[in-house]
């Protein structure tokens, strides 16, 4: 824990990723990544069964029918989570990389403290991202009858193998994923950082999160249970893994990954991008693709696909991350990828839209640290309505962004 505290004050997840940006020419596996999917990949629009077979064999995910979702951007996610805490009747399970003492934490603790009688509560935090959790937050949770644990102890041998997932599961039936941490940067209830209030909310980040109900929540609960077991927690009782009847128009798959030479997250990203026929629109906070991913993006441009990436601008939480990101601009622009830097505040979202039906949202950044070393979790969603809503959000963000032009 001493190592966690010594690192934690200066290496939040963004700092950890930025440190990885200094190693942008290296692969965390020890060799340069050369992964690519050989041959063609079917698109969801052209051949849904073939795409679903490709998704299952690559990332162990199936697009299950019967889901309802709502996007909960920025600090609005906490209003929704607090409402679900009050409604929970069986259990409340959190996994967070960043859980810091402060106003956002206090709001959640107040809600947890007034939950219905008999509702189990478990909170798992990463000791590197949450250096004050064990001393300040965990005793309060335990005083409320919650179990509070730390994920994998920090040591130099596993410094990069942290839990970057942001997951909350209620009653085994409702789940949240996204980029949110329990810290003041995510505290704004505003949907956007409007010009008149930009100065006031300059330190409150732009992020995307999603609330999901439907059968896929079983898979999210399983991912929580596996992390919980590693931290010394007991098996979940069967009433926290209920059978969930399909109810809703969206088809959804869940992909979780852990450290490995070649992870399901890396396979998933390559598969989704390669399946695109019309567009790949990416919003990503720490975008440091390796050579194989940059080559794939350029390949899609040559095929006539509109490839655009929305990135943090000058308001980046760590200058080293910005430096690493901008080192790649010339190569990306030469490949025809369009780049935009978000101006009002730190852009922390992790979303991808493929063509007109397919979207990915969760905690995954597009760099080798996130793709190969960190615990991550994302939804893959087949729903034109979600794509439409993400597209509207994307277009709004672009109006407050600066396009990066190639240098003559």
User: Largest sheet, order of strands side by side?
Assistant: 4-3-2-5-6-7-1-8-14-13-12-9-10-11-15
Could you please say which CATH topology applies here?
Endonuclease, Chain A
Any idea how many domains? 1
Task: Quickly name the level 1 CATH class.
Answer: Alpha Beta
Order of helices and strands: HHHEHEHEHEEEEHEHEHEHHEEEHEHE
Q: How many β-strand stretches?
A: 15
Helix content: 25-40%
The CATH homologous superfamily is termed Endonuclease Chain A
Q: What are the segments in which pLDDT stays under 50 over at least 5 consecutive residues?
A: 1-11, 21-27, 191-202
Task: Please state roughly what percent of the residues sit in beta strands, choosing from under 5%, 5-15%, 15-25%, 25-35%, 35-45% or over 45%.
Answer: 15-25%
Quaternary? single chain
**Tally of alpha and pi helices:** 13
Shape: globular
Task: Assign the structural class, choosing from mainly alpha, mainly beta, alpha/beta, alpha+beta, or little secondary structure.
Answer: alpha+beta
**CATH architecture call:** 2-Layer Sandwich
Characterise this structure.
- Helix content is 33%, strand content 21%.
- It contains 13 helices and 15 strands.
- Strands 4-3-2-5-6-7-1-8-14-13-12-9-10-11-15 form a 15-stranded mixed sheet, with helices on both faces.
- Strand 12 (350-354) and strand 13 form a beta hairpin.
- The longest helix is centred in the C-terminal third of the chain and has 16 residues, at 384-399.
- The protein is an alpha+beta fold.
- It has helices at residues 2-8, 13-21, 48-59, 76-87, 103-113, 133-143, 217-230, 264-275, 291-302, 319-327, 329-334, 368-372, 384-399; strands at residues 64-71, 91-96, 120-125, 147-150, 167-170, 174-178, 209-213, 250-257, 279-284, 306-312, 338-342, 350-354, 358-362, 376-382, 401-404.
- The chain has a single domain (2-404), classed as Endonuclease, Chain A (2-Layer Sandwich), CATH 3.30.870.
- Mean pLDDT is 90; it is low at 1-11, 21-27 and 191-202.
């Amino acid at each position: 824990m001493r190592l966690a505290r010594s690192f934690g004050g200066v290496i939040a997840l963004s700092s950890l990723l930025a440190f990885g940006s200094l190693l942008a020419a290296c692969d965390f596996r020890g060799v340069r990544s050369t992964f690519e999917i050989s041959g063609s990949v079917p698109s969801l629009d052209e051949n849904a069964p073939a795409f679903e077979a490709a998704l299952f064999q690559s990332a162990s995910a199936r697009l299950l029918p019967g889901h309802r979702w709502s996007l909960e951007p920025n600090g609005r996610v906490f209003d929704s989570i607090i409402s679900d805490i009050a409604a929970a009747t069986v259990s409340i399970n959190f996994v967070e990389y960043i859980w810091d003492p402060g106003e956002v934490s206090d709001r959640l603790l107040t809600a947890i403290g007034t939950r219905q009688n008999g509702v189990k509560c478990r909170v798992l935090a990463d000791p590197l991202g949450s250096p004050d959790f064990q001393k300040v937050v965990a005793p309060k949770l335990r005083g409320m009858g919650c179990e509070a644990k730390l994920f994998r102890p920090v040591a130099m041998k596993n410094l990069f193998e942290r839990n970057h997932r942001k997951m909350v599961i209620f009653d085994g039936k409702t789940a949240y994923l996204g980029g949110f941490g329990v810290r003041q940067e995510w505290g704004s209830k505003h949907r956007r950082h409007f010009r008149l209030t930009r100065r006031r909310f300059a330190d409150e980040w732009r992020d995307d999160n999603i609330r999901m109900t439907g059968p896929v929540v079983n898979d999210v609960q399983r991912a929580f249970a596996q992390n919980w077991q590693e931290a010394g927690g007991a098996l979940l009782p069967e009433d926290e893994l209920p059978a969930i009847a399909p109810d809703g128009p969206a088809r959804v798959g869940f992909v979780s990954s852990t450290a490995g030479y070649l992870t399901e997250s890396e396979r998933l990203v390559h598969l989704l991008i390669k399946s695109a026929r019309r567009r790949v629109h990416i919003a990503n906070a720490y975008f440091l693709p390796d050579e194989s991913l940059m080559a794939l993006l350029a390949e899609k441009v040559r095929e006539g696909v509109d490839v655009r990436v929305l990135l943090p601008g000058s308001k980046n939480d760590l200058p080293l991350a910005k430096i690493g990101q901008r080192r790649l601009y010339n190569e990306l622009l030469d490949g025809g990828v369009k780049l935009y830097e978000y101006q009002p505040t730190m852009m922390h979202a992790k979303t991808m839209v493929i063509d007109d039906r397919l979207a990915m949202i969760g905690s995954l950044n597009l760099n080798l640290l996130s793709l190969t070393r960190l615990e991550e979790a994302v939804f893959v969603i087949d729903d034109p309505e979600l794509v439409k809503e993400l597209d509207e959000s994307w277009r709004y963000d672009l109006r407050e962004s600066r396009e990066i032009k190639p240098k003559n």
